[in-house]
């Protein structure tokens, strides 16, 4: 089969194959067709010289809010993904069973970029989140809709990858961990993983972790105090280590209030790397401090994580969390998504959610995106 597109001569970094080499990547029929040097172009093949760039599997942002127009926190997925090098945006609970149909029809299906979703157990998802109105949807147990959530998740398995719930003082108030228990019932019923948001206690970090199952995701995992995973002595809490041992996944979910350099330094110093790096992009953090996926990745690069580990946390690891092994890889036969990045050298000012600044010497920049085996929005 003739190649539709060849990315020629880039440094290909694909942790799913433990690959880091200068080579070509070819696409055909919407999939990765071949990797190798000197791949032969046909007369109709789109050949791109990418020798100045690093080629990675299409970046997956495991925590976004892209129900644009349907919720006040939603941002435009296509614009964000093109600028941030993301080929799969995973919306985490913007919609619940009461409004997922609109999300699917009006945002997901028309989108050129892939959008997957964790379905919120609350009827209307995260409906009261803006600059002026902040309503924790999990505060009101009357909004919990487990029966409809299970039905909607089951009927939309092509797009829904799991169940989402938010717990903590700001999102569940005096309801505490009860919404989490309800969401776990739904996740068990439909056989899907759960993603749990955590903010200020109650419940505590330990209380939430104790409930999570293998394959479940704790997002906002590197939070500032309170509900931080690190102790005052700079060690990792035993409950955190125990949870990882039994298969709970730890996601960054940077956002407006959920990532601190102090916490990250402690965790990385103990060799506790995040399973997945995600931006938690939404209207209240797209202009800072999160900005986008590549900026969030850059922070970890500047804190000492190896580039291959940073890329893995945004590709193959995220694909495994989603249970979508066809994503996050450039193995022949995988979905034909790729991201082109460069590593800028200089002095770059990064900020966390508590106002601490880090002057980093490197910045990951998005230079181009391939979606479904085609160059997307050529620069």
Automatic annotation (TrEMBL):
The lineage of its organism: Bacteria, Pseudomonadati, Pseudomonadota, Alphaproteobacteria, Hyphomicrobiales. Zn(2+) 1 binds at residues 63, 65, 164, 280. The modification N6-carboxylysine is found at residue 164. Zn(2+) 2 binds at residues 164, 197, 220. GO terms for molecular function: deacetylase activity; hydrolase activity, acting on carbon-nitrogen (but not peptide) bonds; metal ion binding. Gene3D superfamilies: Metal-dependent hydrolases (3.20.20.140), Urease, subunit C, domain 1 (2.30.40.10). Residues 54-210, 263-343 form the Amidohydrolase-related domain. Keywords: Metal-binding, Zinc. The keyword Metal-binding applies. It comes from the Bacteria. It holds the Pfam family Amidohydro_1. The record marks 166 as: Transition state stabilizer. This is Dihydroorotase. The keyword Transmembrane does not apply.
